Amino acid sequence: MFGKSFKLFKLFGFSVKVDVSWLVIAFLVSWSLAAGVFPALHPEWSKGLYWAMGIGGAIGLFLSIILHELSHSLVARRFGLPMTGITLFIFGGVAEMSDEPPSPRAEFAMAIAGPLASVLVGGICFGGAFIGRWADAPSSVVTVVGYLGTINLVLAVFNMIPAFPLDGGRVLRAVLWGWKDNLRWATKVSSMVGAGFGALLIALGLVSLLFGRLIGGMWWILIGLFVRHAAHGSYRQLLMKRALEGEPVRRFMHDRPVVVPRQISVEELVNEYVYRHHFKFFPVVEGERLVGCVSTRDVKELPREEWSRQTVGAIAQPCTATNSVGPEDDAMDALSKMNRSRLSRLMVVEGDHLVGVLSLKDLLGFFSMKLELEES
Questions:
Q1: SS3 string of the chain?
Q2: Which residues pair with residue 347 across a beta bridge?
Q3: Which of 39, 95, 186, 356 could tie 253 with a disulfide, CB 3.0–4.6 Å?
C-alpha cells in the first residue's frame, strides 16, 4: 500500500510514520483552506492569515487522524493483536495490523473505536470553539478549531459507511461473522459491499467531471479506485492466509538454490549470476558454510568502478532474522517477513547451513493455483 515512509515519533509504544504521499494531501488541505474555505467565511482577513490558518488546520487534521488510528491500535492491543504502527498516507491513515482479529467482538470493538474517537475529538473542538467565542479568543483560532470539529464529525460519518475496509465495513463484517460464525463468508460479503461503494464513488467522480468540477471529480475517482482495490485485496489476503497458514516453509522452498562464492568479484556476480539467472537476491557461501546474502540493492550502492575490485564477501549482508527463515517455519509468517523487509526471496537456514531458498513467486503461484482449483 505504501511507498517510502518516515518515522516521526512513538505514541503509547506505537511508531507513527508518514508516507511521502501525505505531503501531497497536507499541501492540498492547506491550500484549499487558505484559498477557499476561510476566505469564504471571513473575506475581510489578510492572505497571510488565511495561510497561517490553513497550515494550522492541516496540522489539526494530521493530529485528528493519528488519534483516530491510535484508538484502533489501543483497542487491538487490549485484545492481544500485534500492531506494527500507524502510517499516514494520501487517503488518510491506517493502523497496521499483522493478523486478523480473534473474534467478532474484537473486530467490532476495534472498528468502532476510531469513529467514536473522531466524534469525541469533534465534540471537544466544538466545545473549544464555543468557549473561545465566549472568552473573546482570536476569531482566527476559533474558526480553525470549529473547522476541526466539523471535519472530525465528517471523518466519523464517512468511516461508518458499511463498506469494507472502512470502519463501518469492519463493523458489518463483525456482525456477519458473529451471525454465521464464518469469517471467510463475512469478509467476502463486506468486501463486495466495499467494492460496490468504490464503484459508486468512481461514478460520482465521473459525473462531477462532466459538470466541470475537475479537482473534486478526480478525488472521488481516486478514492473510489482505492476503496475497490483495498476491498478486493483484503479478501484475497484472508484467502492467502487460509491457504498458507500452517504450511511449513519446506514445502515451498527450492532445496538446490543458486549460491554465490564469497571470493568472486561483484562484476562476476553481475555478469555470471544476476544476468544469467535474473534473481535479485543470492545466498553467499564459503565452501559449505553460509556466510550471508547479497542483493542487487547492495550492488547498486557500490560505485560502478569498484565492481571489479570488490569481492562479494565485502558487500554481503549477514544472515539475520530479517532475511532468513527455518524450514519448519510457517509459510504465512515467511510471507509477512517478505512484506516487511521488501525481499522477494528468503534463505532457508538450519544452523549455519543453507538448506534452500523461499521465493515470493512460488508462494503466489501456489496460492493462485489453489484459488483456481478450490474457489467456487
A1: CCCCEEEEEEECCEEEEEECHHHHHHHHHHHHHHHHHHHHHCCCCCHHHHHHHHHHHHHHHHHHHHHHHHHHHHHHHHCCCCEEEEEEECCEEEEEECCCCCCHHHHHHHHHHHHHHHHHHHHHHHHHHHHHHHCCCCHHHHHHHHHHHHHHHHHHHHHCCCCCCCHHHHHHHHHHHHHHCCHHHHHHHHHHHHHHHHHHHHHHHHHHHHCCCHHHHHHHHHHHHHHHHHHHHHHHHHHHHHHHCCCEHHHCCECCCCCEECCCEHHHHHHHHHHHHCCCEEEEEECCEEEEEEEHHHHHCCCHHHCCCCEHHHHCECCCCCCEECCCCEHHHHHHHHHHHCCCEEEEEECCEEEEEEEHHHHHHHHHHHHHHHCC
A2: 324, 357
A3: 356
pTM: 0.74
CATH architecture group of domain 249-374: Roll (3.10)
Q: What number of other Cβ atoms are within 10 A of residue 297's Cβ? A: 12
Q: Pairing between strand 353-359 and 324-325?
A: unpaired
Q: List the grid coordinates of 202.
A: 468512481
Q: What is the pLDDT of residues 51-110, one digit of tens each?
A: 999 999 999 998 998 899 889 888 988 888 877 777 776 666 777 776 778 889 999 999
**Helices 47-78 and 104-134, packing angle to 10 deg:** 150
The three three-digit cell numbers of residue 152, written as one number: 472530525
- For 244-297, what is each residue's pLDDT tens digit? 878 899 999 988 889 999 999 999 999 999 999 988 889 999 887 888 889 898
At 263, the amino acid letter reads Q
**Domain range list for the chain:** 5-244, 249-374
